[in-house]
């Protein structure tokens, strides 16, 4: 059994630039982040013996590009939370002795689209047969489909869903690397351009270029590195359906309800011990589902929890402290950036640092509620 | 006939009966032989128990509006704003669809409103199961 805190993050870095990076193709975004993470740890490619990144045929591309000879690889690709699953799988692999020093990379030319991953139509697939004929056009038309059911069940208002974006913009204002930093009001959100009712553009994530990388090893080795180690206390993962129309409950994600509590129970923590939280916010409803499905709020109470200021700067559960996918950055697979912020907060090095934070929960979603991964971090080894 | 441009489904061996059914004016679901529960999308075994003992049956075509978005940007084959909806069939399963013969507004598209299937050809091969407001309510 993998012990609490047995594995640590010793390297964590984003690409040198974030936002619009027309001077780098997608593979170089992976490499730029990886080189930054290796530089802060003092590691060279020859010191890395495990590689994880998203997608078919990708681990060999990234490993070879970087000059790494891995004895363990993982190409799990379940959408934007794949990196949480990579962390989980890498921790187990190090525990099992399959590798000692694992590099996880993300790079995505989401905005500039330089060698970006194509998304081919698959008319024979289940999505192609039973969703695509009805006119979905990317995540903004699919991810929000359950929202009206959630709003009706719990009496959640358009103002509540606008407030999520307003609060996250407040955090973004404290982050120099956030793409959008100017304060916004509920009225600004509700008067912004309609994309797919009930969501307007300020309730939809950004589209950016960028990347990130993590380096994991045994906590016993962490003292060999100049960085402050961040310990992995618990992890969880699950998947549901690749078709949002087939999720079993439109007001709660089954994948969230499996991954989140699995991680929290493995970590052996109480929810009141959590000082900092990231919930992947591709769209404004996701923090509500995340807070409820992970047990931080009762069903239907997350909107009130946010409205009352609990997730704002100075609140009792600081949430999405970069500004999140709505304001900080969103390359297409944002999970890597949520993990980076949890690590920064645990290092005490975040631009919007939560004073004294010791435990961070980082929760990701993949596809349209189709996958989930959760990591509990701490800067103290149990 | 629908405007051209929509993504066209391509039936597979496991879904051919469904698409043959819509062309015939029938909404065909499948039922698990162990639990008696209906399921969708089509597959030749039960997602509830794994049994291959399943039957195909014709659904009533009655449904309610479960949730939706109204998309405001142009997409080939559609005139914005248009709703992308999920309906709950009387037999239990849900499916994505479009709502026709109805204003595409939040005021006209009321959750839980009763609907009736409206088989609508895309071309000679494929007929889509769209839905319209049920006449005279439930």
UniProtKB/TrEMBL annotation, chain A:
Coiled coil location: none
SUPFAM superfamilies in the cross-refs: Thiolase-like
Pfam families to which the protein is assigned, alphabetical: Thiolase_C_1
Stretches assigned to the Thiolase C-terminal domain: 236-379
UniProt GO MF annotations: acetyl-CoA C-acyltransferase activity
Entries under InterPro entries matching the protein: Thiolase, Thiolase-like, Thiolase_C_2
Matches recorded under Gene3D superfamilies: 3.40.47.10
PANTHER family: ACETYL-COA C-ACETYLTRANSFERASE, NON-SPECIFIC LIPID-TRANSFER PROTEIN-LIKE 2
Name recorded for this polypeptide: Thiolase
Organism of provenance: Dankookia rubra
UniProtKB/TrEMBL annotation, chain B:
Domain ChsH2 C-terminal OB-fold as annotated: residue spans: 58-119
Residue stretches making up the ChsH2 rubredoxin-like zinc ribbon domain: 19-45
InterPro entries: ChsH2_C, ChsH2_Znr, NA-bd_OB-fold, Thioester_dehydratase-like
Chain segments annotated as coiled-coil in the UniProt record: none
Pfam family, one: OB_ChsH2_C
Protein name: Zn-ribbon domain-containing OB-fold protein
Native source organism of the sequence: Dankookia rubra
